Amino acid sequence: MSFRTRLTSFFVLIVVIPMVTVGFLVFVLIGNSQRAKSDARANGLATAARSLYIEQSSAASHDAQTVARMLASSGTRSLPARVASLAGQLGLARIAVSIGSRSIADVGARTALAPGEATLTIGRGKPLWTVAVSEITAGEYIRDLSGPGVAVIIRQGARTLASTYGSAVALPASRTGTVRIDGIGYRALTQSLPGFGGPVKVTVLSSTAASGQLTGSRILAAGFIVAVLLFAFGFSVLASRALQGQVSRFLQAARRLAGGDFSSPIQIEGHDEFAELGQEFNNMSNQLERRLDELSLERARLREAIRRIGQTFAANLDRPALLELALKTAVDAVQASAGRVSVRSSADEPLAEALREGTLDGLESHILEAERAALNEGGLGESSGEGVAVLAVTLSPVEPGGRTHGLITVVSRERQFTADDREVLRSLAGQASLALENVDLHLQVSRQAVTDELTGLANHGRFQELLGTEVEQVRRYHTPLGLIMLDIDNFKSINDTHGHQQGDVVLKRVARVLADTSREADFPARYGGEEMALILPHTDLEGAYAIAERIRTAIEAAPIPRNDGEGWLHVTASLGVAASTDCTKDELIADADAALYEAKRTGKNRTVIAPARAPNLSRAQ
Question: Does the predicted model carry a pTM greater than 0.85?
Answer without folding.
Answer: no
